[in-house]
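Structure catalogue
Derive tokens from sequence
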Amino acid sequence: MTGVQTCALPISGLLDLALAAKPDASVFHELQGGALRAAGQADSANAGYQRALELDEQSWRALAGLAALAAEAGDTTLALSLYDRALEAGPEDETTALAAVALVRETDPAETARRLERLLEVHPRSAASARELAGLLAVQGAQQRAKNYAERAAWFDSPDPEQSGSPSCGE
């Protein structure tokens, strides 16, 4: 050995060190909330996310984490409200938008379509979202719009979309 020592701490130990060094850094409280949620400790995760929001009221990661906790607890209304707040604070986060879509997918096709359209405004190259929206619109009888979104999905699924011309507009 050359005098270099390594130390393997579990994520909770690293977060404890980070929080001790920078207790007012919202990002460490966001990470703590996520780690605790993953460990099944919903109450402690909630406290971590709430602390992150106290430090940064626009913490979209904390809002998304609270939304996930609400969804896991079966409170879809609260979860959707929190996901919407998270998307206002961090609209570029596709994962949060998809989590909100998943909550309404089985119960509200019109709301699902609305959320997918909004997601595609921010992430226009999301082939999976365009494909899902095409299917919903086809079921709703909006055949031309469904066809346009299906073509868009196929275009972005192609190996080289830049060489395939431009996708149809969803309108």
Q: What stands out?
A: The chain has a mean pLDDT of 87. The longest helix spans residues 143-157. The chain is about 70% helix and 0% strand. The radius of gyration is 20 Å.
